[in-house]
Design goal:
362 residues; alpha/beta; TIM Barrel; 8-stranded parallel barrel; 13 helices; 9 strands; 15% strand; globular
Length: 362
């Protein structure tokens, strides 16, 4: 039977209208969060402080299924004096996670920054011996990891041990000056002893840049070859709209995972400014506006990197954003204090940005 032209045209219009509406619904479906869109890929996490648990509670619970204490578990905040631990903030974050069914990444056990002053000093104010420093590291790791055993599924054990100087290998920190590379090996061994089921990470930034990637790989291979209990590597992912390139990011994931290590993106944000390492003052006339052009660049970069993450879902076991929304992020204070940054998927009013839809519309 022949269908009348007018009827056919109406049905064709109806088909495209309905399918277009379905596609549009996918974009504006506010009942789903990042964690729901990525439930078949990997957990989606966020770094928080205690204040964020109240200020951004609904956003955290609707979008994320993993949290990382931004600062509360670093050495100086949690262990300010040799014989005193400060558990309040860390305990609050873990308790919040348990109450709401969220996973927790522990961050971090050993770092050259945010370390308490007493750690490297003896009773006379001089530098401690290697034996004393390793004992203090052992006691710290044993105490902290044991307290959260069974509550924290993964730890950033050693953070940023590779030097920023491309001509050097390990960072010339006090850890290295006193202990050589032994502090790295022992930190993993002691973390594993304290919680054998915890997933143990080495965590670093600029890992996608070829010269640093090779040195991070050298460290990881050394640890694997020595049978140190390392399970995974954290790509911090403090990126910008200008980097990393697709090829550099893919190469990094492939090279690290070739060692049998899982990979997580542990501290993700995409700055609208090029990378700078050193702190500096804001320059006169320096703009801090999220222009339409920068917003588009940010959309494209987020869309690009999440496409890569999905392609490597067999080795990527989590993606964590560093802060909740643009209202406040660490990049508002670093490297240019007072310069507003807009690095996340949610704006200053906790609303999804264009980049959000680029991440979830796949």
């Amino acid at each position: 039977m022949m269908m009348k032209t007018g009827t056919y045209a109406f049905l064709l219009f109806l088909f495209f209208y309905i399918n277009g509406a379905v596609a549009q619904q996918k974009i504006v479906d506010n009942s789903k969060g990042l964690k729901d869109y990525y439930k078949n890929y990997f957990p989606i996490g966020v770094a928080v402080n205690v204040q964020a648990l109240t200020q951004y509670k609904s956003l955290i619970l609707s979008q994320f299924n993993s949290i990382t204490p931004e600062n509360a578990m670093k050495m100086a905040p949690i262990h300010p004096q040799e014989n005193r631990y400060s558990w309040r903030d860390a305990d609050s974050i873990v308790s919040f996670a348990q109450s709401h069914g969220l996973r927790v990444r522990g961050h971090n056990l050993c770092w050259h920054e945010q370390t308490p002053y007493w750690l490297f000093k003896d009773s006379t104010g001089g530098r401690v011996t290697k034996e004393v420093l390793l004992k203090r590291l052992h006691d710290h790791i044993q105490t902290v990891v044991s307290r959260y055993k069974g509550k924290i599924y993964a730890w950033d054990v050693v953070n940023e041990a590779i030097d920023d100087d491309s001509t050097r290998f390990l960072r010339n920190s006090l850890w290295y000056q006193i202990c050589g590379d032994e502090f790295i090996i022992k930190a993993f061994e002691w973390a594993h002893e304290a919680d054998p089921k915890a997933i143990l990470f080495y965590n670093d930034y600029n890992t996608e840049r070829p010269e640093k990637r090779e040195r991070v790989y050298k460290l990881l291979k050394m640890l694997v070859d020595r049978h140190v209990p390392i399970n995974a590597v954290g790509i911090q992912a403090h990126w910008s709209v200008y980097e990393p390139t697709v090829s550099d990011l893919k190469k990094t994931i492939e090279q690290f995972s070739s060692l049998g290590l899982k990979v997580q993106v542990t501290e993700l944000d995409v700055s609208i400014y090029p990378w700078e390492k050193e702190r500096r003052a804001k320059r006169p006339g320096e703009s801090d506006t999220l222009t339409p052009e920068l917003e588009q660049k940010q959309l494209e970069k987020y869309t690009e990197v999440f496409k890569i993450f999905r392609q490597y879902k067999k080795v990527i076991t989590g993606v964590t954003f560093w802060n909740v929304c643009d209202q406040f992020t660490w990049l508002d204070q670093y490297p240019v204090p007072g310069r507003k940054n807009y690095p996340l998927l949610f704006d200053v009013n906790q609303q999804p940005k264009k980049a959000y839809w680029g991440v979830v519309n796949f």
